[in-house]
Structure formats: C-alpha cells, structure tokens
Amino acid sequence: MAPAPSSSLATAGHGKTKSGRSSSSAVRPALLAIAVSVMVVLLMAVLFGARWTPSGGHGGGADTSWVSAGARVVLNAVSSQQGADPVVKVAQPHDRLLGGLLSPDFNDTSCLSRYRASLYRRRSLHVLSSHLVSALRRYESLHRLCGPGTSAYERAVARLRSPSSSNTTSDAPSECRYLVWTPHAGLGNRMLSITSAFLYALLTGRVLLFHRSGDDMKDLFCEPFPGATWVLPEKDFPIRGMERFGIRTRESLGNALGRGEGGRDPPPPWMYVHLRHDYTRPGASDRLFFCDDGQDALRRVGWVVLLSDNYFVPGLFLIPRYERELSRMFPRRDAVFHHLGRFLFHPSNTVWGMVMRYHGSYLAKAEERVGVQVRTFSWAPISTDELYGQIVSCAQGENILPRVRESSSGSDNATAIPGSRRQQQQRPARRKAVLVVSLHGEYYERIRDMYYEHGAAGGDAVSVFQPTHLGGQRSEERMHNQKALAEMMLLSFSDVALTSAASTFGYVSHGLAGLRPWVLMVPVRKKAPNPPCRLAATVEPCFHTPPHYDCQARTKGDNGKTVRHVRHCEDLKDGVQLVD
C-alpha cells in the first residue's frame, strides 16, 4: 500500500485558480523539478562522495556518517552495481566470515571456534561498515610486518633497550610502534580492556601486544591475527614488572604531564598509561589521556604500556581527533564491542571442547535458550532470598520464564508474581533450557526446584542447568579462567538474556551475542528495586570510571553530557556508555 501524501502536498493539490479549475496541473511540474533536483544531488553525492577520502584519514572506504538511512540504501544499491563493497551491510546467515569481519587466512582446525561460534548464536542484525573491515585487514598486515619474530620488531626492541644508540626518531614513518596490554582484574574486565586497547591501536597505528605475566591466560584464546602472534615475548624484554605498575609509576603519562614533560624532546622510549579504576583520584593527571595534551605526549613515543580494568571505548569517542574515523568504522555506535569482540576473542580448542560438550549434552535440543547471569557485589549488598525474588519477579513478569502452576495437581492456573507487568502469552508448549551462571549454586537450585515441584503453566518443558558454582573468583588460575570463558560463550548462545547490573561478565556475554539484555537493577537499601529489571538501552558495555573531565575548561565535567552518543549507564549512574 502506498503511503498517504503529506498534509502540505494534499493542500497544494486541491487549490483552486481564479477560473475555478484545479491547480494540480500547474503544481505537478514544480514538484517534478524539485524531485529531480534532489535525485541529482543524491546521485552526485554517491558518485563523488563515495570515493572521497580526506587527507587526514586512513582511506579504505567512504565517509557516510552523514548519510541518512534512505540515502544509504541508494548508495548501497549504486555501489553494488559498480562492483564496490557496500558502505554498510549485515552478515548473511551461516556466513563463516561474518560479513568480512573475520579473515579467511586461518587454518580451520587450529582454532575450531573461530568460524563455528556464530552458528550457535542468533543471527546478528548489527550492520558492519566496509571501512571497519578495511581497517581490520590493514591492521592484520601491519601486525604481520611488525609483530614478534620480525626484523622490525627486533629493531624496535633494540631501540627500546638502547634508545641513545639509535639515530631513528619516533617520527620516522617506517618505524613500528607498539601498545603493550597488561592483564588486571577478572576475565570480563580483561576482555573489555583488551577490546578498548585494540581500538586505540587501530586509531593510532600501533601494534597490540598481549603481555602474559603468568600462566592464567595461557590456552585461553586463539591468535586473532593471521600469520603472527600477539603474545609479547617475555624473554629479554627490557621493560620489567609491568603487572606491578600503578598510579605512582614515574614513567606514567599522568606523572610526565604533571612534571611538564609532555612535550619532551627527544621523547622517552616508552610511557605507561594508567587507566585502572583509581586513575581519576584527586591530584592525578592520568585522565588527560582523553585530552589532546595526553594524546600529543603519546604520539611520538614508540612503546606504550597500558594497564586498565575498564571498558574505556566510550572515552575514545570523547576525543575530537578520533571522532571522524570512529564514525566511519561504526556508523552505529552501539555495536562496537559486538564487532570487535567477535573479531578478537575465539576460545582455544581446549575451551571450545568444554563449550561443545556442555551444549550438546544440555542445551542443543531446546527450542529456546534463556541465559541468567547472577553476580553480587560488596558495594550493593542484598540477601539471597531478596535477589532470588528479584530474579523470578523479572523473569516471569517480563515473560522471559513461564509462571508455575498453582499446585501439583496438574492445574494450569499460574500463581500471581508480585511486581509482574506482562501476562503470559498463549502459544504452543516449548522446550526451554535455562542456563544459570553464578559463582554460587543457590539461585540455580531454587529455580530448578520451582519448576520441578510445580511445573510450568502452559505446558512448557523447562530444564534448568548450571555448569559450575566455584564459590569465588580466582582469576589467577588458568582452569578458572577457562571455565569462565566457556560459560561466557554458552551464555552468548542465548535467545534472551537476564544479567546483573554492572557485571563485566554479563557485558561480554550479551555483547558477543548482540543482545540487549534484561538487567537486574542495583538493590536499594538491600532490597530489590521496583521495577526489578529493565531492558537495556544498548548492547554496549558500561565504562564504569569515565574521566568526567572537561578538557577545554580544564576542570571537572560530566562526560554523560559531552556528546550525544555517550550517555550515563542505566545500571551504574556514574558510568557512561555508547548509544545510538
């Protein structure tokens, strides 16, 4: 059915001339002329704008961040006719390369999860820009050129070891530059900070190296870049003790700026960036990383060591010099982690074996998979009974899980759930698998017993599972991290997700899935809030500790109000996250 005409056109079409005849014949040529003019302008933008690359950019695609949704459809159609890649696209079902996100240059058996994990997830409908795909391919080439084991890497380490003996300055265009990431905190925090570090490396032309300070991260992930390793060789590397760096480290960016050495010439051979949760404390200058002062100081430094437990991607969107390139990589700002996480994180064959054995045994036959991730924090205390009630109230009130029968007699009358807001929809009975992931077993046991003792109203067959309940977080142990990664992957196979507020574990799981989760809100005075949960506004994780600094005014600011696509998090009000 054709859309109804706008009110202005309808009025014009029914005007009368002095002779009493309709003026539609007079108006029609004018409207035609306007329409043709608009089409000509759009066509010129397509033919010329789609191939224009600004001198300061990295090339590889058109800047179409200004193009409306309708114009982008025209642009895609014309581009495909000309044999060029579309500016944005959605991966087709069963596309092992995820629309070009993944490189085809890997041996399938060396990392079984790389091309198979997406087959177990709901199809991603998040658009992927050709500019991001081009940037990833360029980075892979850079990593092969400059990564460990290459002559370029050996020269860079030699300059780091004896900077005074090298005549090569850090401004030389042929010099490889590096960003060394150091692990800190739990696995969820680590994966979010690695993603942030990788995006920063993309923006600044650096090679990301993964510093494994112990065995806890071994046999966890496959190599993400073809033909090269991202693991920093520890033997004879001149910078020692990186895992112990902190806010007082003399070589930190904040301390260098505090001493007035941001523009030092010659630049230091390396510099440390401290972005842990304490980097914003009074008197510290580390937050200037998100200002031009900090970026100018780092620009000529060959080696940057980073220690962070934050997802600081939203902070990169606050830096004006990167705004244009970021808009080209991510026309939709709410899918940054979804794309980069699926590019970077592929479980090792050891971890993938755990995932496949559990999925095949318990989840494969379900028609719907529900992921429930439960995490408690000392700063938000709540009793087990209260939190269990919050989970059930949310899950049944939002029709995530079916209500239970009133009694064991077989009646299908559902019990009333306090705080429920949506009636159970009438539909055929289904097999539903509920995957509970928590450090503790109480919530799994209560949900399981609820359906075992009463049954699901409407006849659904509900099965409840929990892979582990380890009792506490032990991120320094390899097996603990392998099990945690396996559970993240299993949760990412969910059709619907219910997660705890402020949990980085949950952020990773639903981010890989590309799902907006239902979020269990933070307790209020040890009680479950009302409503108990909310549907997240975005797939993006929360940056828990943003700088909250106004770089121009050089004073405190509110980064949730700086740019329109960075807003305060719903689950942690002081944090910020990307929205679209």
UniProtKB/TrEMBL annotation:
Q: Where are the transmembrane segments?
A: 30-50
| An annotated GO BP | xyloglucan biosynthetic process
Q: Which GO terms describe its molecular function?
A: galactoside 2-alpha-L-fucosyltransferase activity
Enzyme Commission number: 2.4.1.-
- Domain of life the protein comes from: Eukaryota
Q: Which GO terms describe its cellular component?
A: Golgi cisterna membrane
Q: Which Pfam families match?
A: XG_FTase
InterPro entries in alphabetical order: XG_FTase
For membrane topology, the record states: Single-pass type II membrane protein
Q: Where in the cell is it found?
A: Golgi apparatus, Golgi stack membrane
**Record's keyword annotation contains Transport:** no
Q: Composition bias, kind Polar residues: at what positions?
A: 1-10
Q: Recite the UniProt keywords alphabetically.
A: Cell wall biogenesis/degradation, Glycoprotein, Glycosyltransferase, Golgi apparatus, Membrane, Transferase, Transmembrane, Transmembrane helix
User: Positions of the region Disordered?
Assistant: 1-23, 404-431
Top EC class for this record: transferase
Q: What does this protein do?
A: May be involved in cell wall biosynthesis.
Which family does the UniProt entry place this protein in? Belongs to the glycosyltransferase 37 family.
Question: Know the name of this protein?
Answer: Fucosyltransferase
Q: What is the lineage of its organism?
A: Eukaryota, Viridiplantae, Streptophyta, Embryophyta, Tracheophyta
